[in-house]
Each structure stands twice: as structure tokens, then as C-alpha cells.
Amino acid sequence: MDTHTKAGGDAGIKKEFFGDLSFEVVILFIFGIFMMTFGTLLFKIHTGELPYTPELQPAYEHVVMVYLGRKHPDRAAALVRRLAAKVDAGNDLLAAAAIQRQWGEIATATGDLEGALAAYEQVLALDTRVGDIKHLAWALGDAAWAALQSGDLARAQAHMARMTRHAQDFSGLKRTEYILH
User: Fold this and answer.
1) Of 23, 33, 45, 50, whose CA is between 20 and 30 Å from 10?
2) In a 10 Å sphere around its CB, with 0-12 CB exposed, 13-18 middle and 19+ buried, how is residue 99 labelled?
3) How far is the C-alpha of 62 from the C-alpha of 83, rounded, in Å?
4) Which of 49, 83, 45 is nearest to 62 (CA)?
């Protein structure tokens, strides 16, 4: 039987598999399956049903930022609370720092600049203990921004100077040196 059909092209898919469906219909069907899968995953992220893992941390951070961008700090806070309950802060300092960073973002978005600065100071302490230059530089930038918004120019300048030093340290290292650092 001829495996090169209109719907299957040169992929070796038999015509009986698709019947008389056009290529466009097949693509829409595949796209629909992808969107349903993606929607299910997104729903589980929003509801906090997925476990906390370092691999999912960037996805959680993006969801928090989307909530804040859409002016839903209450939803962002609810998600961060669920994540904080799943993180073993004593054993995973980077995760604990990421949770604190998200509290700082929420506080900044709601205008609680003192709360934001307090959260970012905790992030700085955690990232300093870990010794992760990249995350420390990010935390310093966040703390500097919150200090600047609160009008504390000296504090903002101190954080920016420290961030610049760490960024220069990071840029001077080769990738393998950074990983082993």
C-alpha cells in the first residue's frame, strides 16, 4: 500500500490512519492536543499541585510575575505560600532564596517597599551563604531597585556597587571555573 499520502507526506504515515483529513486539520488536531496538555500543566502550576523541584522554579517565578503583571498580587502570594510549604528551606538554600525573592517582588508590586527590602536582605543572606555569584548579583539588583524606589539612595548605591563587583567577578570566570567556584 502506498505510504506517501496527501496527509502523511513523506513521513510514512498510511492514509488509513488519517482517512480523508487534510494536512491543515491534522495540524490543528496536533496543536489542540499540545494546547490541552500545556493548559493542564499550567493549571497544575497555578494551583500548586505540582511538586517543588529546582527545575520548575523558573516556571513558578514566571507565573508569579504574570500574576503581578496582571495586578493579581493575592494570587501570586497564594502560589508563593503553597510553594514555601513545599520547600525544605533548611536543606535547599537556593529554593528558600527564590521564595524570598518572590515575596520581595510581591511586596514591591504592592508598594510595601520596606517589606520588599526586608525580603531582599534575606535573599542576600541566603545567596551569600550559598556563594552563588549569579543569584547574589540578581538579589543585589532587586534590593537596589527597592531601595531606590523607597528613596534610600545611599543604600541603593551600595547595593549597585556590590552588584557590579560580583558581576565583574562572574564575567571574569570561565564557565568551568564558575561551576567549581
Assistant:
1) 33
2) buried
3) 13
4) 45
**pLDDT, block means (10 residues), the chain with 181 residues:** 50 62 86 88 74 78 86 90 79 85 92 92 88 83 90 92 78 49 44
Q: Are 103 and 119 in contact (CB under 8 A)?
A: yes
C-alpha cell at 102: 518572590
Cell numbers that stand for 3 in this block = 505510504
Residue whose cell numbers read 526586608: 118
Cell of 172: 571574569
169: cell is 567577578
Q: Measuring CA to CA, which residue among 144, 41, 145, 56 is closest to residue 95?
A: 56
Q: What is the pTM of this model?
A: 0.66
- For residues 126 and 165, what is the distance between their CA atoms, to the nearest angstrom? 18
Which of 104, 124, 90 lies closest to 61 in space, CA to CA?
104
The angle at the Cα of 44, spanning 58 to 50, to the nearest 5 degrees, equals: 65
Residue 127 C-alpha cell reads as 545567596
Task: Record the cell numbers describing residue 122, joined without a space.
Answer: 534575606
Q: What pLDDT does residue 152 have?
A: 92
**In the structure grid, which three cell numbers stand for residue 56, read together?**
520548575
Q: Are 143 and 120 in contact (CB under 8 A)?
A: yes
**Rounded to whole angstroms, how far apart are CA atoms 8 and 18?**
8
pLDDT of residue 175: 46
